[in-house]
Amino acid sequence: MNTKEFKTYADKEQFVQGVFSNIAKNYDLMNTVLSFGQDYFWRKFSVKAMNIGPHQRVLDVACGTCVFTKEALRQEPTLKVEALDFNSEMLDQGRVRIEDAGLIDQVNLVQGDAMALPYADNTFDAAMSGFAMRNVPDIKQVLSEMQRVVKPGGKVVVLELAKPSMFGFKQLYNFYFSYILPIIGKLSKDNSSYAWLPESLRRYPHQSEILEIWKSLGYENATYHELTGGIVAVHEGVVPENSIVNNK
Ligand SMILES: C[S@@+](CC[C@H](N)C(=O)[O-])C[C@H]1O[C@@H](n2cnc3c(N)ncnc32)[C@H](O)[C@@H]1O
């Protein structure tokens, strides 16, 4: 499918499913290579921002291969994590990671759609998501769903690629995305899947515009942190007592 032809939400979801089915086996390696190993620090920062406590219940939206889930359990080993993704190949890789780490008793892997989370209101103490928002058909809908399923006072934290503004980083980043990434894509078996990475980022709003979406949903203390010169942004907000997305 030509990515310019997303006429419906279903079109985009179908395309994104195909991308992640194709790259699931190489995802972890590519993640580390493409981020120059920085993704570990970005995730560590993001999990800290959730302020999770012992024995809490946390949701990892679009968990993929469960790297974020594992980092949350590293920081707070008594957590119960619900790890949700709509792609079975990514979930399979995630299951292997969680089983190998001996964490399967604390993690429930679920196949589901971030646009319509299969949970009752106020189920979780906190929710997080990493590198997924570029891939969903409607960011506001997913942030609204995350707000709905998290208890009032709980944190929602989202890590995603951003648009760097710091001089030097911006130029380097543009060069990397315009020239280096396409070469990596051509060398891989599936050029079109790797072409989606820069394309999805090009379509993704600036981090300041994403913040406006958080504010429009009534998240309290909504803010974002730019890391590594703004290569990624971590948005966070607190679920309000009187949420506008349900009758909290
Ligand atoms: C770039 S990967 C990120 C995986 C993981 N969160 C991480 O931090 O490495 C994006 C993930 O989002 C998932 N995804 C995309 N759209 C989704 C949706 N609507 N519902 C559930 N999962 C979705 C994909 O299947 C993929 O596993």
UniProtKB/TrEMBL annotation:
UniProt xrefs under PROSITE patterns: SAM_MT_UBIE, UBIE_1
Keyword vocabulary terms for this entry: Menaquinone biosynthesis, Methyltransferase, S-adenosyl-L-methionine, Transferase, Ubiquinone
Pathway: Quinol/quinone metabolism; menaquinone biosynthesis; menaquinol from 1,4-dihydroxy-2-naphthoate: step 2/2
EC top class named in words: transferase
E.C. numbers: 2.1.1.163
InterPro entries in the record: SAM-dependent_MTases_sf, UbiE/COQ5_MeTrFase, UbiE/COQ5_MeTrFase_CS
Binding site for S-adenosyl-L-methionine: 65, 85, 113-114
Stored Pfam families: Ubie_methyltran (PF01209)
Record's catalysed reaction(s): a 2-demethylmenaquinol + S-adenosyl-L-methionine = a menaquinol + S-adenosyl-L-homocysteine + H(+)
Keyword Methyltransferase (UniProt): yes
Listed GO MF terms: demethylmenaquinone methyltransferase activity
GO process annotations (BP): menaquinone biosynthetic process; methylation
Family the UniProt entry places it in: Belongs to the class I-like SAM-binding methyltransferase superfamily. MenG/UbiE family.
Function: Methyltransferase required for the conversion of demethylmenaquinol (DMKH2) to menaquinol (MKH2).
Protein name as catalogued: Demethylmenaquinone methyltransferase
Annotated organism of origin: Veillonella dispar ATCC 17748
